[in-house]
Amino acid sequence: QVWLVESGGGLVQPGGSLRLSCAASGTGIIANIYDMAWYRQTSGKERELVARITRRGTTTYSDSTQGRFTITRDSARGTVYLQMNSLKPEDTGVYFCSADVFTQGTYWGQGAQVTVSS
Q: Exposed, middle or buried by CB within 10 Å (0-12, 13-18, 19+), for 58?
């Protein structure tokens, strides 16, 4: 069994920064996590990829977040982070972390609300 818990969401002004964390738990699974990622659902839109990071550290970003967001991870602890800078109102939404676990599939966190108010 794999559980992911996000933290760090909240309210921030445009141009501000916020750091999201996502911790994985589950007996014997941390070593078996390969890709981890952040997705988000903004107003009226379907869930979209924000950033992804492989176990070796290769990253990909959406065009809308490239240059502003940074995804990192602590593979030893099964934790992934999303540093969000220069936030815009359009970034407002629910952010979900995911973890791809070998032989088990993809697991999702419950979501963290990020609100960028103008």
A: exposed
Stronger pLDDT, 43 or 4, i.e. the higher one: 4
Q: Are 20 and 5 in contact (CB under 8 A)?
A: no
Say which amino acid occupies 51. Answer: A
| DSSP sequence for 18-58 | EEEEEEEE-TTTGGGEEEEEEEEE-TT---EEEEEE-TT--
Residue 67 has pLDDT above 90, yes or no: yes
Which pLDDT does position 48 carry in this prediction?
95
pLDDT digits (tens, 9 = 90+) for 21-55: 999 998 778 889 999 999 999 988 899 999 999 99
- pLDDT score of 6 more than 90: yes
Neighbouring-strand partners of residue 3:
25
Count of residues in the chain: 118
Number of neighbours of residue 66 by Cβ within 10 angstroms: 10
What span, in angstroms and rounded, lies between the C-alpha atoms of 51 and 35?
11
Q: Which residue type does 107 have?
A: Y
